Amino acid sequence: YSLSGEGCTRCSPGKFSSEVGSSGCNDCPEGKKAVVASFQCTDCETGKFSGAAEGSCRTCASGEITNDEKSNCVKCQAGKKGSDVVGLECVDCGLGEYSDNEASTSCQFCRAGRYAAILGSTECTHCEPGKFQSQAHERTCENCMPGEKSTDSKDSCAKCAGGSYSDEGSASCTLCPAGRKSDMGSPACLDCAAGSYSDEPGQASCKLCSVENNVWSDAGATECTLCLSGR
């Protein structure tokens, strides 16, 4: 209350008087509130804020929290989201998640072919060459198997074509050298069998030497040779 010509007058909301016989009411500072006829101001509740001389506190918008003084709201940074209790705290996005905007109310899942290995990510990372991730919301990528290579989307691996091969975790396939061959999806090349050959790299099959022309080859040959006299 405060003294006036007609007696005591109640302090209005947002104001207080803590002394007996006071001639006026004082404004509550920012971050505090006071109802009618208050002798002191009280702090705003967690997640709420107020300006000076306000009778009640306001709730922050979703994706925001109060500043330390509870005088205003600040946006949650990218990589975080607002907590379930509005205005309480900003929470890091989990592994396999991200948020790329301020004041986010939720985090997005990394899509297949990408991952987020740390908390509070602002973006997802593409799987490295030779790796893939077929699922969304993941924290790591996996190596492509031998006989495979990674695709541009990194959400799967593709089998090596016939005439080529790859080791585990390969970004591309390597052509088999002349004299060797491979089937689709092979982890290694095989020598052409005796009596056959391949004269170019990248062959899925070997050519047969012509018996009629009296030619032959050993295993792994790049050409056929004429049989010696008597053979």
UniProtKB/TrEMBL annotation:
<feature type="domain" description="Tyrosine-protein kinase ephrin type A/B receptor-like">
    <location>
        <begin position="113"/>
        <end position="154"/>
    </location>
</feature>
<dbReference type="InterPro" id="IPR009030">
    <property type="entry name" value="Growth_fac_rcpt_cys_sf"/>
</dbReference>
<dbReference type="InterPro" id="IPR011641">
    <property type="entry name" value="Tyr-kin_ephrin_A/B_rcpt-like"/>
</dbReference>
<dbReference type="Pfam" id="PF07699">
    <property type="entry name" value="Ephrin_rec_like"/>
</dbReference>
<protein>
    <recommendedName>
        <fullName>Tyrosine-protein kinase ephrin type A/B receptor-like domain-containing protein</fullName>
    </recommendedName>
</protein>
